[in-house]
Amino acid sequence: MDTLLIVDDEKSILDLLGVVLRKEGYRVLTNPGTSKAYETLDGGDIDLVITDVKMPQLDGMTFLKTVRIQKPTVPIIVITAFGSVKQAVEALKEGALDYVTKPFDIEELKILVTHGLEQKRLREENLLLKRTFQDQSRFENMIGRSKAMQEVFHLIERVASTDSTVLVTGESGTGKEMAARAVHAHSRRKDHSFVSINCAALPENLLESELFGHTKGSFTGAISDKKGMFETADQGTIFLDEVGEMSPWTQVKLFRVLQERKVRRVGGNDEIPVDVRIIAATNQDLKKRIEEGKFREELFYRLNVVSFEMPPLRKRPEDIPLLVSHFLQKHCQKMGRKMKRLVPEVVGFLETYPWPGNVRELENLIERLVAVEERETVTLASLPADILGSHLKPETAVALRPGFNLEEHLDQVAKRYIQEAGTAAGGNLKKTAALLGIGYRSLRYLLDKHGIESFKKPDSPDRRERMP
């Protein structure tokens, strides 16, 4: 049953509305325009408010504003004196749903109440859907609503409850370590250590010592015994990033650890049992490395128990707006800057950019924009030149030969650049002009000169003209 709160200093109106609206099946609370209206508002669930705005003991406009702040989804219908249009307009500006003037039509008021309650239900459903959508678009620190990322989230959830070794593949910057941390966070080992090491960042002798530990005096500089990362990660998870860069000798030792679940420190004789889950990652094709004799086949099969690929950003462009919003909030807050807004043309351009550095490159770009862009609104002109010009293909050298016509060749080059820029800009003329570094009028002149049918008019985003 919906609950209505009616606030008015006229008892006759309270009585009338109470009788009428209760007959309609509503629970009705009334207040004679006193400060106790605030207590009623705080005391329980209110689905709709009907209030006068001019009362001797209670400032109706202040009460209206309070309702909007405390219960933003609750609709408000305002009662005003006949002819007091100024008050009604002010109430609407403050968020009132609608108003009625005294004396009012009961049937009209009933319709407004029904409409207001329906609007409230829709608003709350939208909020619920938005929260649900946000939850589905996030998994630990990873963000993505694309089918590819949803499949990754689902697989991580399933594999996390096991102790199986996991191999995460994908290009650099796609978030392989974040995926590994998500597996750990959802596993039974989540209360123990997550230890990460980049196998490509250390020379062979240091990597072996870091992984397996060493004994005092085992090599120059080994002044004491040292635990390796496998021992440190006992009961937890060890993440081996860029595992394809391991030397053949270290691969042999890693295979032995995977097989026997024991480590032997460099220079030591004792075998130390370890209970560790191993997650490895690589941006290389390990099967090709095996064919080249650079990666041991038996180790590959030990690592490749469960595997999944982190998709490159260019293959999930629908995730870019979510990532942009996340990175903007993150870096604006980190730098103490006002929240910046990217115009739709910029977001559209970012969705077409190939992102060779993947999510890492996108975050770096957003951090740069937050740091150096003085305006709160980010336009195409704010983007770095190397990104703006990324879609334009370099011209190959032209062989000079009899009959070569420089003017004709330059016209062909100009036409090709305009067409490529138009494709990169999604057919938008203003974006195309920005990519080419010319004005909008200049672009229109060149389109006419070279007989290129224009793409999309900047003032009519839904109207497209044909492009050859």
Count of individual helical segments: 19
N-to-C CA distance: 61 Å
Beta-strand share of residues:
5-15%
Average pLDDT level: 85
Largest sheet: 5 strands, parallel
Task: Give unreliable regions as ranges.
Answer: 393-399, 459-468
Q: Strands of the largest sheet, in order across it?
A: 2-1-3-4-5
Alpha carbon gyration radius: 33 Å
- The count of DSSP E runs of length 2 or more, i.e. the number of strands, is 16
Helix content: 40-55%
Rough outline: flat
Structural class, by secondary structure, is: alpha/beta
In short:
By secondary structure, the protein is of the alpha/beta class. The protein is built from 19 helices and 16 strands.
Detail the topology: elements first, then pairings:
Blueprint: E1 3-7, H1 11-23, E2 27-31, H2 36-43, E3 48-52, H3 60-70, E4 76-80, H4 85-93, E5 98-101, H5 106-137, E6 138-139, E7 142-143, H6 147-160, E8 166-169, H7 176-185, E9 194-198, H8 204-212, H9 229-232, E10 237-241, H10 248-260, E11 262-263, E12 272-273, E13 277-282, H11 286-291, H12 297-303, E14 306-309, H13 320-335, E15 341-342, H14 344-352, H15 358-372, E16 377-378, H16 385-388, H17 406-424, H18 429-436, H19 440-449
Parallel strand pairs: 1-2, 1-3, 3-4, 4-5, 8-13, 8-14, 9-10, 10-13, 15-16
Antiparallel strand pairs: 6-7, 11-12
